[in-house]
């Protein structure tokens, strides 16, 4: 995969790439949006804690396909308030800490999810040979 960060536009202001080129012949994994629902059915209150659960779920989904966080080519995240952005971004940066090539990224502020206790939802696209 090749990050696309043209010098003709402002550089990314966080840990992401403006675009990512996926070469022909790669397998693609697309996750559903993951919510901060722990395996025991609990939902922590904080955005960071929920995002950590989302990324841990994504890590397991990728592993099922023989992939790792470094294979992620795009992250879409949704938070219910600007106050949740920092917690989400800290969890994203931890998830991608060992990635040499950063994925593209989209972050949206939404009015809510299926339950009011959810404050973060994350989905990814990944690709590997």
Automatic annotation (TrEMBL):
Naturally occurring in which organism (per UniProt): Shimia aestuarii
Protein name per UniProt: Enamine deaminase RidA, house cleaning of reactive enamine intermediates, YjgF/YER057c/UK114 family
Domain of life: Bacteria
Pfam families: Ribonuc_L-PSP
Annotated SUPFAM superfamilies: YjgF-like (SSF55298)
Coiled-coil region: none
InterPro entries membership: RutC-like_sf, YjgF/YER057c/UK114
């Amino acid at each position: 995969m090749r990050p696309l960060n043209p010098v003709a536009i402002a550089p990314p202001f966080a840990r992401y790439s403006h675009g990512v080129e996926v070469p022909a012949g790669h397998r693609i994994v697309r996750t559903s949006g993951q919510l901060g629902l722990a395996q025991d059915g609990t939902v922590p209150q904080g955005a960071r804690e929920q995002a950590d659960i989302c990324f841990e779920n994504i890590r397991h989904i990728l592993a099922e396909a023989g992939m790792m966080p470094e294979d992620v080519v795009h992250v879409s995240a949704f938070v219910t308030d600007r106050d949740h952005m920092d917690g989400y971004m800290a969890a994203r940066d931890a998830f991608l800490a060992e990635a040499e090539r950063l994925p593209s990224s989209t972050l949206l502020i939404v009015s809510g999810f299926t339950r009011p206790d959810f404050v973060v939802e994350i989905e990814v696209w990944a690709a590997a040979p």
